[in-house]
Amino acid sequence: ELLKLSLIDTELLRLSLIDTELLMLSLIDTELLKLSLILTELLKLSLIDTELLRLSLMLTELDKLSLIDTELDKLSLIDTELLRLSLMLTELLKLSLIDTELLRLSLMLTELLMLSLIDTELLRLSLMLTELLMLSLMLTELLKLSLIDTELLRLSL
Length: 157
Known about the structure:
Layout: H1 2-156
């Protein structure tokens, strides 16, 4: 009987060892579950990190687009300035055309002044001719008087 009890006791000890082993395995399994949870959290953090990197890349692209937009704004300002300068150039060309027309009119005026001087000279010559004609008339009158005087002299002789 004692032997049976000893066998049972041994069996119970063996079962207790198995139970201890099972408990140890359960503890290991619990640790593995904890590590799995930690790993899951790390994976979540890795996904968040990946998403942050993707957002960072998008932000970088947006920054590049913003720089391009800034350059386009600068080019637009340059274009506006070029248009303003083109308008100024157009105005200068108009003024140059007006200046050319004024020069042409000035030349015409110079020609008219020269014609006026010629006309004045002609008038002066005409006045001189009139004076000469008046002197010629006076001379004719003098000649007539001289003829009369000669005739009177001849008659008186």
